[in-house]
Amino acid sequence: MRSFDPVIEDGVAYVLFAYDVGLGIGLDAAEKGVKAMTERAPIRHQRRAPKHFEFEPTPLRVTQVSTVHHIAGFSTSPAIETVLYDFGAVCVTYQIPLTGPFSGLLALSEALYDNEVLLADSRRLVEELLAGIVTAVKRPQIAHFYEDYVIFQLREFDEPGARERLLQENPLSVAQVLRADGDLRSDQEVKDAMACPISYAADDLTLVDWASAIVFDKVADDTRAVLEFGQVQLLELRHLDNQLDAALDRCYETLTRRAPKRISFFPASGNDDLEAIGELQGESAVLFEGVNNAIKLLGDQYLARLYEQIATRYHLKSWDESILRKLRTLESIYEKLEHEQSSARLEFLEWIVIILIALELIMPFLRGH
Fold it and tell me: DSSP label at 143?
């Protein structure tokens, strides 16, 4: 029996590439340096959402132009949307118009997974943009790693009730598109791929997975923005975790090369280590809080639930716990080094007192001579 395969009459695939480009971006200064079209506006809501749902500060949206890329029978649009976040992240989004049978999305999904052409092009766009706003970026440098994600927004099918029939009669095809894996056959994997559904009304549904998401909705700018932010947040947490790993390695080297019982006549010689660790602690804490507090969802229950699904899929809680644990380790190392410095200062002062007392005792004999 042939599986149900509805025809997509109107849809679009959003291909996201997120990069870390620096410690922070001054959005107002960056806006002045951008020559392309910009948009500084809150997300356009399709549902009743109170004013509490907003980014703080509002990201800077830039329109760039690139060549058309042909992928698995589909083509990208020349207009590229690039979003800049104040905590140093940039997200490049390609749009691919979708029409045709749903089964055709599998080849596209597989082709988009770690697509080297779009990856190279997106990095080029980020480099060009960064060159124009370099004065607005603190410590500009594009990180070597990235996060990519695909959002399939399916707005309209060729027949009513197609979404319900597709999910009931052909869940395997849906799971294969979500996982970008045509060899996926396991019932357990199919259930896991479709384990995070969320909807607001009877006519919309979002399936969130770790490689991509499928959004059955005619207008979903707010949903897409939250999915995009989830990728950016995951990128920044990975970047911060990587930085902390490197910092802990440096701290370990610092501790192992310090003689434990050395008498230091220059107690300020270790201040560089303390200053470096303290600076890293401050930067890490600011970035961690900036990423986690950038989006406000408390006023919109649907978007808050969507964000919880994203956090579950990306294991954001585990990343948070790992980073907090490493920050506490850095704090303990800082306290240990500070204690050593304080002990060295006290020891230095004690030696000065001993020398002064010795001089006071021998001065009468020196005067006699």
Answer: -
CA distance 172 to 168: 10
Check: CB of residue 41 under 8 Å from CB of residue 66. Answer: no
φ, ψ of residue 345 to 5 degrees: the values are: -65, -45
Contact 58, 40 (CB under 8 A): yes
Give the number of other Cβ atoms within 10 Å of residue 53's Cβ: 22
48: nearest Cα among 273, 303, 253:
303
Q: Is 162 helix (H, G, I), strand (E, B) or coil?
A: helix
Render pLDDT for 304-337 as a digit per residue (tens, 0 to 9). Answer: 888 888 988 888 888 888 888 888 887 777 677 7
The answer to whether residues 205 and 216 touch, using CB atoms and an 8 Å cutoff, is yes
pTM (two decimals): 0.81
Alpha helix ranges (H) inside the chain: 27-33, 104-112, 116-132, 162-169, 171-179, 187-193, 221-257, 271-292, 301-314, 316-368
Q: Which two tokens stand for residue 126?
A: 């980020």
What single DSSP character describes residue 317? H
Q: Which residue has the tokens 């979903």?
A: 220
Q: What is the DSSP letter of 99?
A: E
CB 74 within 8 A of CB 95: no
- Quickly list DSSP for 6-18: PEEEEEEEEEEEE
Residue with tokens 């549902």: 47
Structure tokens at 222: 């707010």
Where is pLDDT greater, at 47 or 127? 127
For residue 199, count CB atoms less than 10 angstroms from its CB and return exposed for 0-12, middle for 13-18, buried for 19 or more. middle
Q: How far apart are CA 51 and CA 49, in angstroms?
A: 7
- The alpha-carbon radius of gyration of the chain (Å, integer) is 28
Residue linked to tokens 């009730």: 161
User: What pLDDT is stored for residue 315 in this prediction?
Assistant: 86
Q: How many CB atoms lie within 10 A of CB 232?
A: 25
Q: Which of 186, 229, 185, 191 is nearest to 207 (CA)?
A: 191
